[in-house]
Amino acid sequence: MNIKDIVKNQNAHFVFYRDQSLFYETDNGFQFSIPISDAGSATINSEEKAIMLMRYIRKHIARTDAARIAQDSGNDSTNSC
Predict the structure, then answer these.
(1) pTM over 0.90
(2) Domain layout of the chain by residue ranges
C-alpha cells in the first residue's frame, strides 16, 4: 500500500489501547499502533490528521513488510523439499 494513499486527506481515529500501545485507524481502514512511551507528556487526541502520525504509519508498514518477507522465506524453505 502506498503511504500517500494512507495519509492524503485522511484522519486517524483512536480505536483502542492494548499492551502499552494506542491503536489508530485511518478513514480508509489502515490500522497502526503508537507506543505509549512515545507520547511522553503529549495530549492524546481521539482524532488526528493521518499525516501528523506518518512516522508511526511508516514504522507499521516496515514491520508488516519485514514480517511478510520472513514468512515468505520460511514458506520457501518448506516448499523446497
Answers:
(1) no
(2) 3-73
Rg (CA), the chain: 15
Cα distance between residue 28 and residue 6, in whole Å? 7
Is the Cα dihedral 48, 46, 43, 57 positive or negative? negative
Mean pLDDT of 39-62: 92
One DSSP character per residue, the chain reads --HHHHHTT-EEEEEEEETTEEEEEETTS-EEEEEGGGTTT----SEEEGGGGHHHHHHHHHHHHHHHHHHHHHHHHHHT-
> Is the model's pLDDT at 1 over the cut of 70?
no
